[in-house]
Design a protein that fits this description.
Chain B: It is a peripheral membrane protein. Chain B: It is found in: Cell membrane. The complex is a heterodimer of chains A (about 250) and B (about 260). With about 250 residues, chain A is mainly alpha-helical. Chain A has one domain: MetI-like (MetI-like fold). Chain A has 9 helices and no strands. The longest helix of chain A has about 40 residues, at about 1-45. The N and C termini of chain A lie far apart (about 55 Å). Chain B has about 260 residues and is α/β, with parallel strands linked by helices. In chain B, about 35% of the residues lie in helices and about 25% in strands. Chain B has helices at about 50-55, 90-95, 115-125, 130-140, 160-170, 190-205, 215-220, 240-245, 250-260, and strands spanning about 10-20, 25-35, 40, 65-70, 70-75, 75-80, 80-85, 100, 175-180, 210, 225-230, 235-240. In chain B, the strands form 3 sheets. Chain B has a 6-stranded mixed β-sheet with strand order 8-9-10-3-11-12, sandwiched between helices. A 4-stranded antiparallel β-sheet of chain B has the order 2-1-4-5, covered by helices on one side. In chain B, β1 (about 10-20) and β2 form a beta hairpin. The two termini of chain B are about 30 Å apart. The chains are: A mainly alpha (about 250), B alpha/beta (about 260). The interface between A and B is medium-sized, with 27 and 33 residues.
């Protein structure tokens, strides 16, 4: 055990860099996924078939193909066509497209859960289509989508471990190195479990905070208590509360 | 039908058809409303009253015919013999003249009372935030809620929400105000407050009003014309006094008997 601890201490200088790579992939992938989700999510519910059709095709394609294959394809096959990206960029793009396709469905579902009366009131006030979405619909849909996006963010973090296979020195690489040094699978992978869990927990805090804030802005809930933010709530989608007045 | 001095009605329906699937709700409906008129639409559920308001607010699309606001085609027009949709950009110009208050209020929960009222005047009419706020404060005063400016809509009672919704619609300075069963979702003791606000607006403005309501006494006080609908057609049209005391059509008599319990 003392050898294990010594190996762990020796490898600590690499841990910071490895966690940073994992965080870069996770946060970069999440930002890209959100952009993809917004474009495809709103695109897949427009009236125009020319927008809706391609949006649906892209969503189904990236949801329906394996993340590993997508990563390998971007890393090994794309250069054949003369388009080469850095390993980190490949990981971010693959994670962003894959999870963005899932998140697009979350965006679409949440937008459709905003009561029809809200759309109608915005039309009655003659708000433009983009303004209507930005100021009225999205803030309400946002509160509904956060719990499901939180789940996807955690999955995205865990999915980032696949980037190890395209030479990235991420957290999983660090765990693998520790296993080689110690030859103790229980110890090294145990460390891996703890480290991924800690990062996931921090992300969950962040998402809980965002959810409480979004709900508060809709006049639901109160200022978040520490227990609400730090508690590990399951990512259950927020129920659409329909009360008299169509106020969610 | 009643027309204004220049002869152009505020609202005109010409052969308007509206179907929901196989169900024909409006079948070549023709009627017009003069500027400044207060018209109440009565009739059994499914007779097409609310559909008329929703068509006027472009919340539904007609399947045929023309809707004109101040003589301007609103949603469709004829180019030659072809019935074509009017682009959203042109619709928006006409839509600015129409406001609507809904049965379920539909205030935006992500905004305060004031933000609900000034959102469209600032972003659609291009008013400065200060002017829009001044106007909003006047309107809140008018609807009896001067102290609720910064409240969240979710903190308000149904009656208060509806009064804010009325202020929000008026803030756009509409020429035509559509009121769709605005008291139906309210507790009985609050209905009088909201009706009082509307009575006040009817008395102090010259806005053309089109009301769908089950409050017959209110309809009698506020409107100068009542249209009785059945199966998407006007079966009777009269001033409120005649309509409520001496209806001619058998269908109107049955309906009023059921509603007024007499």
């Amino acid at each position: 055990m003392s050898d294990d601890l010594q190996a762990l201490i020796d490898s600590l200088p690499d841990l910071g860099g490895a966690v940073l790579v994992t965080l870069q992939m996770t946060l970069g992938g999440a930002v890209l996924a959100m952009l993809v989700a917004l474009v495809l999510g709103f695109g897949s519910r427009t009236r125009s078939l020319w927008v809706r059709g391609p949006s649906r095709v892209v969503i189904e394609f990236f949801r329906g193909t394996s993340l590993v294959v997508q990563i390998f394809w971007l890393f090994y096959v794309l250069p054949v066509f003369g388009f080469k990206m850095e390993a980190l960029a490949v990981a971010i793009v693959a994670l962003g497209l894959n999870y963005g396709a899932y998140a697009a469905e979350v965006v679409r579902g949440s937008v459709e859960s905003v009561p029809t009366g809200q759309w109608e009131a915005a039309t009655a006030l003659n708000l433009g289509p983009f303004h209507k979405i930005r100021r009225v619909i999205f803030p309400q849909a946002w509160a509904l989508m956060i719990p499901q996006l939180a789940n996807l963010l955690i999955q995205l973090l865990k999915g980032s471990a696949l980037a190890f296979y395209i030479t990235l020195h991420d957290l999983y690489w660090w765990i693998d190195e520790l296993q080689r040094d110690t030859r103790d699978t229980f110890f090294s992978y145990g460390c891996g479990l703890v480290l991924y869990f800690v990062i996931a927990y921090v992300l969950t805090w962040g998402m809980n905070w965002l959810e409480e804030r979004a709900k508060r802005r809709l006049g639901r809930g109160t200022r978040p208590r520490l227990r609400d933010v730090f508690g590990l709530k399951p990512g259950v989608p927020t129920e659409v509360v329909r009360v008299k007045g169509g106020v969610a | 039908m009643t027309n204004t001095s220049n002869g152009t009605p505020a609202i005109e329906f010409r052969d308007v058809v509206k179907r929901f699937g196989d169900n024909v709700v409006l079948d070549k409906l023709n009627f017009s409303v003069a500027q400044g008129d207060r018209v109440t639409l009565i009739g059994p559920s499914g007779s097409g009253k609310t559909t008329i308001l929703r068509l006027l607010m472009t919340l539904e699309e007609a399947n045929g015919g023309l809707i004109l606001i101040d003589g301007d085609p609103y949603t469709h027009e004829y180019k030659g013999d072809k019935w074509v949709e009017i682009p959203e950009k042109r619709r928006r110009v006409v839509r600015n003249r129409v406001g609507m208050v809904f049965q379920q209020f539909n205030l935006f929960p992500n905004m305060t009372v004031l933000e609900n009222i000034i959102e469209a005047p600032v972003h659609v009419l291009g008013l400065s935030k200060k002017d829009a706020t001044d106007r909003a404060e006047q309107l809140l005063e008018q609807v009896g809620m001067p102290d609720k400016r910064d409240a969240r809509c979710t903190q308000l009672s149904g009656g208060q929400q509806q009064r804010v919704a009325i202020a929000r619609a008026l803030a756009m300075d509409p020429e035509i105000l559509l009121l769709d069963e605005v008291t139906s979702a309210l507790d009985p003791e609050i209905v009088a407050d909201v009706l009082g606000v509307l009575r006040d607006i009817a008395r102090t403005t010259d806005i053309t009003m089109l009301l769908v309501t089950h409050e017959m006494q209110f309809a009698r006080e506020v409107s100068n014309r009542v249209l009785m609908f059945d199966h998407g057609q006007i079966v009777e049209e009269a001033d409120p006094e005649t309509m409520f005391t001496n209806p001619k059509h058998e269908r109107t008599q049955e309906f009023l008997k059921a509603v007024l319990g007499g």
